[in-house]
Amino acid sequence: MRLTQGTFSFLPDLDDSEISAQVQYCLDHGWPVSIEHTDDPHPRNVYWEMWGTPMFDLRDPAGVLAELAACRKTFPGRYIKIIGYDRAYHRQTTALSFLVQRPSHEPGFRLERQESDDRRVRYTLHSYASEKPHGSRYGESNGSAPRG
Amino acid sequence: MTSEATVIAPPDERVDVGAEYRAAGLSDILEELDRELVGLTPVKTRIREIASLLLIARLRERAGKTTDQPTLHMSFTGHPGTGKTTVARRMAAILHRLGYVRKGHLVTAGRDDLVGQYVGHTAPKTREVLKRAMGGVLFIDEAYYLYRADSERDYGSEAIETMLQVMENQRDDLVVIFAGYGEQMDAFFQANPGLRSRVAHHIEFPNFTVDELMSIAALMVRQQQYELDDEARAALHDYLTLRIAQPYFANARSVRNAIDRAKLRHASRLVANPAPIPARELSRIDAADIRASRVFRDPTAE
Prior knowledge:
The complex is a heterodimer of chains A (148) and B (302). Chain A has 148 residues and is of the alpha+beta class. Chain A is built from two helices and six strands, in the order αββαββββ. Chain A has a domain at 16-106: Ribulose 1,5 Bisphosphate Carboxylase/Oxygenase, CATH 3.30.190. With 302 residues, chain B is an alpha/beta fold. Classes of the chains: A alpha+beta (148), B alpha/beta (302). At the A-B interface, helix 2 of A face helix 7 of B.
């Protein structure tokens, strides 16, 4: 199942020149760009791991792309996303975030129904990938900590 | 340049190098360089050469010839106040105009910005500065401080290594300029042979002559909307002749300091005699303002 989340989720995966153009858009707006990765892509998992610190004061996307290449090399089997954060007063939130890498095999999710009191049904999503321990999902062998 | 162009163009096609030169706005930049930077002939020659090289590289590319992106990392050596930073700033604009760098901004970094304080701190710190400079020019002032031969545990060499990697692999993304005083820079490059070979252009900034310093002074005074009368100009000429022989002479920077001090004395002279004066006196520096300098009182002092 192809995971879709964030901005451009309805589009095919962006290639590097398209990623670069989007990063340039962020930089033109003065949004610092950061890279995050995870092997637990549950839609409610907002705590992805950070690849280094957010990148401030950049003028050109080349720096972000270089970091992205390093992240891809270290975690070839993880989801990676790029985030532009708008710090402007009254917004102060993620302005744009999009996936830039996905594992080759994505097992997807199943819907779980739980019968609770008064025959009410609670629904929840179960990620097949999360059945395996952290670091060994998506056929990945390494689960090493990100570099500082 | 025309003969070069005819050699590289396909035989049946003609390339108008002059038109391309004008279209790139190069003449404006180079003229501005001539107008606003006094002296520095070897520097200007080299900039002209680099500009021509890049222009021809672009034309070659358009004519379908393969051209390697030339390496443009540079080192600026020269005594204090010879215009290294000023030229670096211009360089960023020139390279941007030529399409060699995408953004054309200048990021200035010193040892503190590049070298970390503990193990594992240096590489990310250096990389951060490099990332900020991408698309523009990274200017490393007093670059020889990066490497300390006397300390093995110094993290400076790690910073140099990190930089080398990026300078080599992302040559299209940024230009690095190392600047510093002559002898120290020589020692620095000797200790880092890998660096020396990756820096293609070593540009030497000569000291200014008294006449050049006078033109610089005239330029500075005009920019600050002051004026020197003839006597003041003669006084300044005498001042510079004496000052140049003294230790710690810092070329254009010393001129700027001399003018700043003259402005100071000019101001206190006006305040000391609070009588109504013509408005143009507010901007006229006279000989006495300059002759009051301690350089005249004791030429051997300082």
